[in-house]
Design brief:
8% helix, 11-stranded antiparallel β-sheet, mainly beta, 2 domains, elongated, 24 strands, 3-stranded antiparallel β-sheet
């Protein structure tokens, strides 16, 4: 048996907040394990007509074509940086009012694909993408079930026997010599290794190997995308919503217990789902005094059709005050 009271709009407060979780994986097998699925790809700029029967493939979890990986990354994330390393002006449409007898007219691109070729911070960095025939890139793909809404900036660390990669919190991938060698796209869970030093030291690729930099380092892209002796760590960020329900009991409300065992002559009924009491006709002597006040032990949340949706149990019984309001706060996360 229960008592119902409807919530007002002021009784419900929804508060968003972000939570983070750190991940650490050691070895290539840990990246491809069930429930993880971190994939690594090699993208290659292959000229000529695409032939699926002869085109080389790549991938540790799923199989993709190297040329398609290269072209997809180029199209989505670097199209604005092919002719200018600092980024070209974004193509937009301009409205010329009354340009002709037909009326207003748009000049320029009016429809574009969903690009992500923009800087992720207010700092201006050079962004490099190799476009020569046979040039290669490395791609690390983290599934959304791991990174949530986005990868927490400055949390990505990737180590191999001959080098390490970290993100600088501004969308750049930094090697052990503090050189920018790629980019990280936090909201897509993608890390690209484009092997260039925008400061001007000039990394150059020969086949599958990268040479250059201040220290004359020699780092193989293949080691990043196919090596087994690796470690990878990052932190995810996910927004959850906490709903707070304010259950207020006025001083003149719920001042009589709903427990049927308080009435004399109540009958116990047992069934497969539990034991219940049917209320009797008279109250027992110990609850008829003027100082008796019922206690709250459980609060149920119902929908408009009185279907029970959630149950909140108090840590200890709470007496209902006959002189002041009693407020119980219920927090639900989702």
């Amino acid at each position: 048996m229960g008592a119902y009271k409807q919530f007002l709009a002021s009784d419900i407060v929804v508060t968003p907040f972000e939570v983070n979780k750190a991940f650490y994986f050691e070895g290539a097998a840990a990246l491809t394990a069930s429930g993880v699925g971190i994939d690594r790809f090699l993208g290659t700029n292959i000229t000529g007509t695409f032939d699926p029967t002869t085109s080389p493939t790549t991938g540790q979890v799923s199989t993709q074509y190297q040329s398609l990986i290269y072209n997809s990354i180029k199209e989505l994330y670097y199209t604005n940086y092919l002719s200018s390393s600092y980024g070209d002006n974004v193509a937009t449409a301009s409205l010329i009012p009354g340009a002709d007898a037909a009326g207003d007219r748009y000049v320029g691109i009016t429809q574009t694909p969903n690009y992500f070729n923009y800087l992720q911070s207010t700092l201006t960095y050079q962004r490099y993408f190799p476009t020569g025939s046979g040039d290669i890139i490395g791609v690390i793909s983290i599934p959304s079930r791991l990174f949530g809404d986005y990868i927490q900036p400055k949390s990505f660390i990737y180590n191999t026997p001959s080098g390490s990669l970290t993100d600088d919190g501004e969308g750049n991938i930094i090697d052990e010599n503090s050189e920018i060698v790629g980019n990280i796209f936090y909201y897509q869970g993608l890390i690209t290794i484009t092997t260039s030093n925008p400061v001007g030291y000039g990394f150059v690729t020969y086949g599958n190997t990268l040479y250059g930099g201040q220290e004359g380092d020699n780092v193989s892209i293949l080691e990043y995308v196919t090596g087994s002796n690796i470690t990878c760590s990052f932190s995810s960020s996910y927004k959850i919503y906490e709903t707070q329900y304010k259950c207020t009991i006025r001083e003149n409300e719920f001042n009589f217990s709903q427990n049927p065992s308080l009435s004399s002559g109540s009958t116990m009924i047992s069934s497969s789902v539990g034991t219940f009491y049917t209320p009797g006709q008279y109250l027992t002597d110990n609850v008829t005094g003027s100082y008796f006040s019922p206690y709250v032990t459980t609060v149920g949340l119902y929908d408009e059709y009185q279907n029970l949706l959630a149950v909140g149990k108090l840590s200890q019984p709470l007496p209902v005050s006959p002189t002041t309001d009693t407020t119980i706060l219920i927090n639900l996360d989702r």
